[in-house]
Amino acid sequence: MDTLTNPVQGRTLVEVDRLRKVYPKGSGEDVLVLGDVTFTLGRNEIVSFLGRSGCGKTTLLRILAGLMPASGGEVRIDGRRVAGPSPDVAMVFQSFALFPWLTVLENVEVGLEAQGIAPAERHRRALAAIDLIGLDGYESAYPKELSGGMRQRVGIARALVVQPTVLLMDEAFSALDVLTAETLRTDLLDLWMEGRLPISAIAVVTHNIEEAVLLSDRVLVFASNPGRVAAEIRIDLPHPRNRLDPAFRQIVEDLYASMTARPDGKTGQGHFFGTGIAMLLPRTSPNLIAGLLEAVAAEPRPGHADLPDLAGDLHMEVDDLFPVAEVLQLLRLAELAEGDIRLTEAGRRFVGLDPDGRKKLFAQHVLTYVPLAAHIRRILDERSTHRAPGSRFRAELEDHMSESFADQTLRTVTSWGRFGEIFAYDEVSDVFSLDNPG
Amino acid sequence: MRTSRNHAARPAAPPLGLGGGRFAPNLFDAAIFLLIVGVFVLLGHGVREMTAPVAQLGTPVTLDPANLPEYALRTTLRMFAAIVASLVFTLVVATLAARSRKAELVIVPALDILQSVPVLGFLTFTVAFFLQLFPGSVLGAECAAIFAIFTSQAWNMAFSFYQSLRTVPRDLDEVARHFRFSPWLRFWRLDVPFAAPGLIWNTMMSMSGGWFFVVASEAITVGDTTVTLPGIGSWLALAIQERDIHAVLLAVATMAAVILAYDQLIFRPIVAWADKFRFEQTAADSRPRSWLYDFWRRARMLPRITRGVGWLVNQIARLPTPITRPPGPPRATPASRRGEMVFAAILAGLVGYAAWHIVTFTRATLSLDDLRAALGDGLLTLVRVLVLIALASFVWVPVGVWIGLRPRLATALQPVAQFLAAFPANVVFPVAVVAIVSLRLDPNVWLSPLMILGTQWYILFNVIAGASAIQTDLRDVAALYRLGAWQKWRQLIVPAILPYYVTGALTAAGGSWNASIVAEVASWGDTHLRAEGLGAYIADATAAGDFPRVVLGIVVMSGMVIACNRLLWRPLYRLAENRFRVE
Predict the structure, then answer these.
(1) Are A151 and B174 inside 8 Å of each other by CB?
(2) What is the pLDDT of residue A169?
(3) Do the chains contact at B177 and A67, CB–CB below 8 Å?
(4) SS3 letters for B199-224?
(5) What positions does the domain ABC transporter occupy (chain A) (predicted)?
(6) Given 1.10.3720.10, 3.30.420.40, 1.20.1730.10, 1.10.260.40, which CATH number is that of B366-583?
(7) What's the pLDDT score for residue A3?
(8) Among B186, B281, B580, which would you mutate to test the A interface (most chain A Cβ atoms within 10 Å of its Cβ)?
């Protein structure tokens, strides 16, 4: 554990010790979202939790904030055990979470009001926070009159004004456009470097790799299924950091590689929850699949691309790019390794085919590598009517996963089945069939 | 500056629990239904044993036009008393339902069923009950009238507030927990503001509906007791008794003036003000407007008063009470098994008691023939309601669409439709009755339209709202590909307005059931007209003080309304929501 603590940055502030989170389910086995997560946060340190959606990093942040109880293990801040929302922590939300019926000033004061602080004192402190974060002049405005960036400033001021020990940021910049996010990040970092923020540590949850590298002293990379710390990378680059700096680029590459690393070296289904027909499929349309194949094929080195470069070229976030890339891997149309994507023989062939040929190849791969699709097709073939109600498959899936994941998986497989003309689906009657309209 | 054309007409939450997922009543609904019927039976039983008090109560009403302003004022004051009572009820009961799972199990189905109980059927019990509570005083009668209005508003408002509380956005809920809001602070800072637009819209619509009931409940005869409260309703009753058509027309004019004042001075300013609570992070381009509200905001002195109200709410929010302490750490709450069992046992006991009581009571006083008669009459009224809704739809849907597709016309006519919906149709009844009497028409047919006279407007203004909400690009597509009239209706207009239409038709149908109690029996002086039906059945039983049959009538009517809601409107609404919602 000591190895995780930064000696330069002072003594341990937050200790997370074998933290577990289990979501109980009605039927089937419980879902393990976080499995034995252990790390520490030092004083004067900014740490990013980097990972894909579904790796439990947001759940972790909510447990740190005391909004959610852990199923096992514990969190200590300054030696005190976290058991519910505490004044030691303040959170900045992705959606800003401002009260639309309160003015900027009232929104900033809200946490102080809950603490029962006298109006005059509240006012003074709120104005100081507003001033610090560059919102002066907007005190009496309502959130809907502000731009996204200004709204998030209100969110930050509201968190700072209660003088927490730790500031938690939950994807705080991801709802903003690129320029605004950059400005806000820089401003926040400047205040932090100048020591003007009344906080001792910042924990940032993000899926944006460059953001993690720009901000943090340390990045914890999370892997999913179950959520856990898969890697830790220390960043000692001086601030302000330059995106084009080769050292910066190298760290970005390393992070991509650790995010694409297969959990156990096996090929295939590694990144997806569940096995067999119970494999949880991400919502990925056949259009995206074809699009990514074409993009990789068109790269300067045809059939082989660097994921960070690809993400930049396609203006895609990690969270959008990875699921598609992994679906390609699942379907054996491409392979992922060390931050690179490489088309397989079938993948190359797919790009060269006409629409009809593509459908056939796609159908063949879906039937071979997606057990759920094969299962649906087999049931339909076996029945004399060639029809089966969707509720049947939904119920089967719900034995293994939550209702919403079952719905998402079935929707995905339906869209693949339709594209490959493997089966048809009528939404109104919720019936799968082998009819092929038109 | 654009003015609002559709915002104000859109219900913030599906009405009458339409959003609920269940179609078929479950065991729980049945249990709650039994409980509610049991309470009616108990009331009826208690009231029957009461000796009839003095025959005439209150100051006698005279048909002197000089008194009319005072009567109008008294009627309006009753309305406000009822709305305040409904608001308090809503804030307390709905919050309880949203916070406590056990309370929720009872309150939500109870509200759902109570919404379907005909308010005017209640009147018998409540008048008797309140007269008993304040013997020999008008206060009892006043309370009964106010309670009648209350019952027409409270359930619906509470349901709307409960639904809002259940849909508070997750992130704001987290902020409140994160900063450790006390329950009190959370209520005033998060729950109430978030629910405000829906609740205010619902309150204002309920108040519109309330005028009908205040008119109906001011002059009422239960058995030997006649209650006359000074007000427009009593004036009207006297005018009918004395066959004074001029007095009737005066009442119509006064009522129109009162509703107009209510609309302009209360309804619109409040809806415009409540817009600031709309949960929306972007500024809207079209907002509800009111000249009075604009005037208010432009004035220099007046806004200070509004700010005073804000300050007052702040003070309330800071009030030191037991619930103002910040909450402790969240407990993982595995619901206590024993508590659940005790709760279920108590509930089962109560339901059993209610069932037993109903059986003994009905055994002693009612026969199977009575049930058959009530059901037969119920079917007649059901046919009337359905035929009338169909006829009204046939007329008002095309008109509403035609208006709704013309923005300027819609802006001008929408308030008119809303005004007509608020206008208590029973004030106009005598005019129709005079016509039926003088033309010697068959009351079985011609009394029927009275049931929908006041409620048809709900169809109209909801359809206008639906049609004006059709996106311009879809209309452009229809024009570009030159869709024929039939195709355009089938593929664009009907799907687009269906959710709005269902909302309007359901409100209209519910209102018509209620109106049947005053519409199926009408008189002009000593000429009495009667249309066979459940409304007449209840009205006759009320006039005769025959409580067992009043209870039977109410139960049958509630059952039919619930059946219509579950079997017709809910599936339709769900279809509209799932299939035709443009996202």
Answers:
(1) no
(2) 93
(3) yes
(4) HHHHHHHHHHHHHHHHHHHHEEEECC
(5) 14-249
(6) 1.10.3720.10
(7) 40
(8) B281
